[in-house]
Amino acid sequence: MESPYLRPRRLRRTPALRELVAETTLRAGQLVLPVFVREGAEAPVPIGSMPGVVQHTRDSLRAAAVEAAELGLGGIMLFGVPTAKDAVGSGAVDPEGVLNRAIADVAAEVGDALPVMADLCLDEFTDHGHCGVLDAAGRVDNDATLEVYAEMARAQAAAGAAVLGPSGMMDGQVAVVRDALDGVGATDVAVMAYSAKYASAFYGPFREAVDSSLVGDRRTYQQDARNALEGVREAQLDVAEGADLVMVKPALAYLDVVRRVRDAVDVPVAAYNISGEYAMVEAAAANGWIDREAAILETLVSIRRAGADVVLTYWAAEAARMLR
Ligand code: PBG
Q1: Where is 5-aminolevulinate 2 annotated to bind (predicted)?
Q2: 314 labeled part of a ligand binding site
């Protein structure tokens, strides 16, 4: 007897059948763990708005990197929290600065087993908290900032970073970083461009994580949430400037942009599952309102399904353990 119905439920009947037809993969090697290291810290410092995430000491950072390598993660992205800041972010280019020292520490510990990635931006190092240097009128000066980024790129490469992540949204930053690297023979150091980075309220917890000094906002350089085409254009410009990977950030409120960028470029696409996205799930789970582990995996799968090849997430190590 012929059924009058088409029955998609047939392929959902057992876990094995569901596994057979699963369209999206989630592997440890696709996940990058962002970490914070605090200059002078003698014990890890918990970040109140990001339960489970800390500002590392040099030692606890090394241990986290070893664990990340053992778990087979795709990378570790380092952010520095310096004790002293100034108008031009000097700590960012100082080989003894907290971030450059952390890059060297981690690179010495994990070698090529785990790609060591470094945030290339001035906001943690400036006393005004902006991602660049300011002009006489107090505006973020694009081209003067690029000169500092070039120096920062050379310092991070010298420290041993494998991948640099320019995240300041200055025009031309990828080309300048690429030139700076090639100029010192660091042709193997890759650039993961924060291409479509939106001015987002969801960065709130990160600002606590890095002790941000920012007053005001970043709307003259980060993108407007209303624009998706502009995100595609930014990614295309970065590919033309030599980006090895491009990134969309945040991830969850911008999954459409992830998809559009994925369809528009031919380099790997990363998406950053940011601090506010992490905090929302953690807060709801702490209240008993959602199943934490299921929500984490569903979140990461959704970003992969949207088209991200690589996902930066504070849950990277935990998710890798869950996926084992
Ligand atoms: C800026 C930077 C930001 C994040 C990473 N690098 C955002 C910002 O303050 O504008 C956010 C990451 C997160 O929220 O998890 N260099």
Answers
A1: 275, 314
A2: yes
Total of domains in the chain: 1
In Å, how far from its chain's centre is CA 112?
19
Range of the domain at 36: 25-323
- The model's pTM: 0.97
Reported as a single tens digit per residue, the pLDDT across 55-102 is 999 999 999 999 999 999 999 999 999 999 999 999 999 999 999 999
Contact assessment for residue 118 and residue 164, using Cβ atoms and an 8 Å cutoff: yes
197 in catalytic set: yes
Is 85 one of the annotated active-site residues of the chain?
no
Q: Which of 38, 249, 260, 262 is catalytic?
A: 249
Percent of the chain that is helix, strand, coil (3-state, to 5)? 45, 20, 40
Task: Answer whether residue 10 is part of any domain.
Answer: no
Cα 206 to averaged position of ligand 1 atoms, centre (Å): 6
Top mutation candidate among 50, 211, 274, 299 for ligand 1, by most atoms within 8 Å of CB = 274
Local structure of residue 198 (DSSP, 8 states): B
